[in-house]
Amino acid sequence: AAPSDGPPPVRAWADKDPAAAVRLAAAREAVTGLAEHYVLPVENLLAPDSLRRLCWAPPVPEPDEEQVAAFLAGAGARPWQVELTARTISEALRKAAAQAAVPAELADNG
In angstroms, rounded to a whole number, what is the distance separating the alpha carbons of residues 7 and 54? Predict the structure, then answer.
């Protein structure tokens, strides 16, 4: 089998990059909420692979809506998918980054 250019299997994220695992959990929860709101299957709202790639290697640690939108469009998301998801995903990723920073700050002060 050819090597994959994508992120590792999700089950390995907690060991390989715990912050990415936190980002993915937050983003999945956000997209699931949107899918329920719009009464769409999650995978129709946004391809799971696009979300995994964004969470594994975001363009910056705390991407804003425009950066998330550009990433998703570059990953092949349709304009309507980007429009419905970019803001919510960027908010989830910024919250995840803030949560991940708290333990590090506590450890630094200890």
Answer: 10
d(CA 42, CA 33): 9
Please spell the DSSP secondary structure of 39-98, one letter per residue. Answer: T--HHHHS-HHHHHHHHHS-SSSS--HHHHHHHHHHTT--HHHHHHHHHHHHHHHHHHHH
3 state DSSP class of 9: coil
C-beta separation of 54 from 68 below 8 A: yes
- Stretch 18-27: mean pLDDT, rounded? 96
pLDDT band at 105 (very low <50, low <70, confident <90, very high): low
H-helix or E-strand spanning residue 103: helix 79-109
Residue 74 phi, psi (nearest 5):
-65, -25
- In the three-class reduction of DSSP (H, G, I as helix; E, B as strand; rest coil), residue 5 is classed as coil
How many Å apart are CA 13 and CA 20, to the nearest integer? 7
Tokens of 53: 């790639």
Whether residue 74 is predicted with pLDDT greater than 90 in this model: the reply is yes
